[in-house]
Specification:
The protein is of the alpha+beta class and about 170 residues long. It is about 25% helix and about 20% strand. The strands form three sheets. It has a four-stranded mixed beta sheet. The longest helix is centred in the middle third of the chain and has 18 residues. It starts with a strand and ends in a 5-residue tail after the last helix.
Length: about 170
């Protein structure tokens, strides 16, 4: 198998900033030797020739990363797609086991509506103040306060963390 990436501009001697992926070369079909398995063009352009690496390296050159699609197609071509899928599933299970469940918020009277509900910390900077002011609000009042926050000084991190939106 071969790999390629867009080369250096002859005029500037630098690789374009948008060149970030190392592609696996297609070896069959209409564009054999001129296209990546993902469909990326591998033929020469006037400003950036294709740099072909034979054989395909184990690690991409510095500053580049593998094209995800090409790696998946290449795994299929060498008969390793099923084994690769098993590895991905195992890693996903390990990652799920490592994540912790969000901590349930404490209940108490809301600082705005005074109803007893699960509470979330709400902090803001009142006009003319130099520090944050904090209050505990229920999710409904927190949302209403967020809608009223016109100057962007609302800190929603405690609510978003508690409901599991930030992981």
């Amino acid at each position: 198998m071969r790999a390629f990436y867009r080369g250096y501009n002859a005029a500037t001697g630098r690789r374009a900033k948008q060149v970030r992926r190392l592609h696996v070369m297609r070896e069959d079909g209409k564009f054999a030797g001129r296209q990546g398995l993902c469909g990326a063009p591998g033929w020469n352009h006037s400003d950036s020739p294709a740099v072909v690496l034979t054989p395909m390296p184990e690690q991409p050159p510095e500053g580049l990363s593998w094209c995800n699609s090409c790696v998946g197609h290449a795994a299929h071509l060498v008969g390793m797609l099923d084994r690769f899928a098993v590895t991905v599933a195992e890693l996903a299970r390990e990652r799920e086991a490592e994540t912790t469940e969000p901590v349930k918020p404490a209940s108490g009277p809301c600082g705005r509506c005074r109803q007893t509900r699960p509470l979330f910390e709400f902090s803001w900077v009142p006009d003319g103040w130099m520090e944050f002011k904090e209050i505990h609000l229920c999710a409904r009042c927190h949302s209403l306060s967020a809608l009223e926050d016109e100057d962007g000084r609302l800190d929603s991190t405690p609510l978003l963390t508690a409901i599991g939106a930030l992981r």
